[in-house]
């Protein structure tokens, strides 16, 4: 039975309701369970909270024992950004691979299977998909998380993803409104700025969000970006012009508006998380996402108190906070209705399961250049992984590459990771006489990586190149494979192509 708040007034309960905090560990701490009893309605999960499917199901059951209708959210995009399989790599290719295939039925099927797995573990809100149009090839944080650089392609696959995910009873949270694709700055580190006119924004960046709204996306996540054409003063997350006038008014969206992580430097480093949270709710946001970095009870207390004090000081209308809290509860009611006990459990148990859909998609996304004269590998090679610094959204816990899958097909395969100005020479020395498979990620964004390939190919023209990011650089090597993402299944598809498996 749903627990109602104990010993808290309506204002305080509403302030807790709009928070989506995280925590550390694979079991819910006492403080979190207590806050659920006081009105907290959502919890965000990250890789640090997940050790496996059975453990995750036990964790979500622990949360629901305290509050039956709790929203359990996760940042599970598939592809490079995975929390369910943070230590192994994802069973699903990411958006860019799906966009490369451009089969909306396949995208819908992938999202449905991902949703099925989330629902089976008790997760009912996914901070996905990314509807950003990756129009800036130097974008350091979106890249393969986007379906592509063409607005119409991104729009149709965003809609398909939303439909597929929500068919499993998991609410989609389409992000990052009004579009994070045309940035060269990561909002985890500072505040990006997009300087284009309103017409470009409407046709390019907003189109996928219109498609998501038409598909019934239950939630939309705001971006921490400054878009002067829409609001010259405040970033989207804090802008009434963008969240209320544009998203709610012009686009007619009536679902939950969630902020991106408030501890990201674009907000925390400019407004602070307390002031930022107050401004976000006042602007039209309904749920405050925090917990990727700040994951403790003190953070929850600080944000709760900041919202309560802002109402009492007249800075935040009480009815706006109440409306935000009611939108959170409305989404909780939708997910509870979708779960429907035994029927949803039976669905999650496997009658509609398609466990191979991710691998099939990864195989279809693979693009080979130079395959005409290529002879599959029969001897174990040396895999030189040229490893860039991972962006925060992806993290550095998740393995990537082709070495593990090649080792399974060609036992004895060796590998090493290289970076910096001497990466090419170091890789050559480590490889010895073995055939070299060079694995790169966004070669076009990293001059040292391109130089390393120059060194390898000058000395060893038979080097094979596998690009696991955005394949913008000119294909080169004895064989060039573009996987359109670095998920585990993308590595497997590449390894199969290299060995003829």
What would you say this structure looks like, in words?
The protein has 501 residues and is α/β, with parallel strands linked by helices. Helix content is 43%, strand content 11%. Strands 2-3-4-5-6-7 form a six-stranded parallel sheet. A six-stranded mixed sheet has the order 9-14-13-12-10-11, with helices on one face. Helix 18 links the parallel strand 12 and strand 13 (464-467). Helix 16 (403-409) packs across helix 19 (488-499). It starts with 9 loop residues before the first helix and ends with a helix.
Question: Could you provide a short overview of the structure?
Answer:
It is built from 19 helices and 14 strands. With about 500 residues, the protein is α/β, with parallel strands linked by helices.
